[in-house]
Amino acid sequence: MGLWEALAARGQPLEVMRLVDDTGRLIRAPEAVFRAPEIGIGTFGSNITNRDITEVLDARAAAEPKLTRILGAVTDVRTRETGIDLTLDDGRTIAAAVAVAADGRRSKLREAAGIEVSTWSYPQSALVLNMRHTAEHNDVSTEFHTRSGPFVLVPLPGKRTSIVLVEKPEVAERLNAMNDADLAIELERRSHSILGRIEIESERQLWPLSGMTAKRVAAKRVFLVGETAHVFPPIGAQGLNLSARDVAALGEVLARARREGRDLGSAGTMDAYERARRIDVETRTRGVDMADRLLLSDALPAQVVRSLGFWAINRFAPLRHLVMREGLMPSFAAPRMMRGLKVG
């Protein structure tokens, strides 16, 4: 479909990632710097706004002759032994062999499949927006670790940056209530002026932080992808990439089932998807959760663990390279499609 070419044209390559301990605690972790050329790649990837991703996907889907687009909201879901029926808000009914639940953390499809979830919350909220600035970002993403959570600067094309500022809920609400000029001054202070003078560019979004994992990723002919299956805080740029691996793995599982003449919604097909995704989802979710809780902890042992971890990453190149490679793509659960290999 030529998706990547269209998306990359709107994206900003990311070459360097910096992790900076800005907690001001007694024991501070050393700065960790990850450079893509160290592991033989030009960039870690591209940063693309949600709006651009949505526009490109929408345009390509509309132009794809093999894809039928049905606009409408699902109001009722009925699972059967041999298929699944979806009722839309205009009264139409769609019968399918399987359904992919990509309808978010409050998924109707997941509920219809009887898949239970584990949920938890954090004493944090995330303020998200885009901004312009006077200094170059030089393809560098900087993640300041503060006592209240990460403050992430993600480079966009030109002298523009997307930020995710995680704070205590009451502080995040106070920041969100500021006018653009005052908020820009506060963001410049928190970023230590590394991007120069700042100007707010976009609307703001404020999200209470929470976590969620589905007990299964497939049941009753329903396959879960994205935030229907897993939710965690915005640490380490893992969420969207994990969701992309869901889609790639599901595509491979369904293609294999069709090639072998098996029912797409059979127990064997659903179990295959479960095996393909369970380890990746669990390790990423637990890893991000642990990183966030370590950052929030004022306990001296937690500070020591964080500091030793950052020191080891800086000191030992093989460990640093392993962290970079695994952060990009898990070696144990990487779908063939995302390794540039043909499916089947």
What's the arrangement of secondary structure elements?
Blueprint: H1 3-8, E1 12-14, E2 16-21, E3 32-35, E4 45-47, H2 50-63, E5 74-79, E6 84-88, E7 93-96, E8 99-101, H3 108-112, E9 117-133, E10 140-146, E11 149-156, E12 160-167, H4 169-177, H5 180-190, E13 198-200, E14 205-214, E15 218-219, E16 222-224, E17 230-231, H6 239-259, H7 267-296, H8 300-315, H9 317-328
Parallel strand pairs: 2-10, 8-16
Antiparallel strand pairs: 1-4, 2-3, 5-6, 6-7, 9-12, 9-13, 9-14, 10-11, 11-12, 14-17, 15-16
Helix pairs in contact: 6-7, 8-9
Q: What would your notes on this structure say?
A:
By secondary structure, this protein is α+β, with helices and mostly antiparallel strands. Among the domains are: 98-119 and 217-339, FAD/NAD(P)-binding domain, CATH 3.50.50; 121-214, D-Amino Acid Oxidase, subunit A, domain 2 (D-Amino Acid Oxidase, Chain A, domain 2). Helix content is 36%, strand content 27%. It contains 9 helices and 17 strands. It has helices at 3-8, 50-63, 108-112, 169-177, 180-190, 239-259, 267-296, 300-315, 317-328; strands at 12-14, 16-21, 32-35, 45-47, 74-79, 84-88, 93-96, 99-101, 117-133, 140-146, 149-156, 160-167, 198-200, 205-214, 218-219, 222-224, 230-231. The strands form 4 sheets. Strands 2, 3, 9, 10, 11, 12, 13, 14 and 17 form a 9-stranded mixed β-sheet that branches. A 3-stranded antiparallel β-sheet has the order 5-6-7. The chain has a 3-stranded mixed β-sheet with strand order 8-16-15. Strand 11 and strand 12 (160-167) form a beta hairpin. Helix 6 runs antiparallel to helix 7 and helix 8 (300-315) packs across helix 9. The chain is globular. The model has no long low-confidence stretch (mean pLDDT 91).
